Amino acid sequence: MMDMRFDEATSKFIQSRLGDNHLLLTFEDGVGPYSQHAMMHMQTQFTVNIVPPDADLSDYDTTVDSNLGPVLVKGYSTDYLDPHLSLHSNSSDGSWSLHGDVGVLDDDVHFIDFVTNERK
Questions:
Q1: DSSP secondary structure letters along 50-111
Q2: Tell me: the pLDDT tens digits for 24-40?
Q3: Could you give the CA distance from residue 76 to residue 97 in angstroms, rounded to a whole number?
Q4: If residue 119 lies in a helix (H) or strand (E), which one and from where to where?
Q5: Of residues 104, 100, 112, 113, the one with CA closest to residue 43
Q6: Chain Cα centroid distance, residue 45
Q7: Rounded mean pLDDT, 9-33
Q8: Locate the Core domain: which residues (predicted)?
Q9: Thinking of the domain 3-119, which architecture would CATH place it in?
Q10: Residue ranges per domain, the chain?
């Protein structure tokens, strides 16, 4: 079973915006309505997304348990993830990084709120 923990800073940021919406961890491969681009830099990239309750979630067929509730992912993207994930905020510049059992999986995770169009 896969799980994810958000540190205090990322948790507060996301919780203040989440409400009744869905939380996604999107593998940026160009597939689905919430993927912004395909991998162009030869590195694995993820974004954290908030989408409305009536959003099309057909590509997000796997749930990851987290301290913020369920996080939906594209099932095949788990090939690029570890069983234990954590999202950290860098105190020096506010950037986010995704960590797994093996270390840093993505050192520049972006946030997109598709409800309000806020981006970080």
A1: EE-TT---TT--EEEEEBTB-EEE-GGGGGGS-SEEEEEE-TTT--EEEEETTEEEEEEEEE
A2: 999 987 666 666 665 44
A3: 21
A4: strand 118-119
A5: 104
A6: 10
A7: 90
A8: 2-112
A9: Sandwich (2.60)
A10: 3-119
pLDDT at 41 exceeding the cut of 90:
no
Task: Tell me the sheet residues that pair with 104.
Answer: 99
pLDDT exceeding 90 applies to what percent of the chain?
78
Residue 28: predicted pLDDT: 82
Query: What size, in residues, is the chain?
Result: 120
50 touches 14 (CB < 8 A): yes
Question: Can you give the pLDDT at residue 39?
Answer: 46
If we measure between CA atoms, which residue out of 86, 74, 63, 80 comes closest to residue 1?
Answer: 63
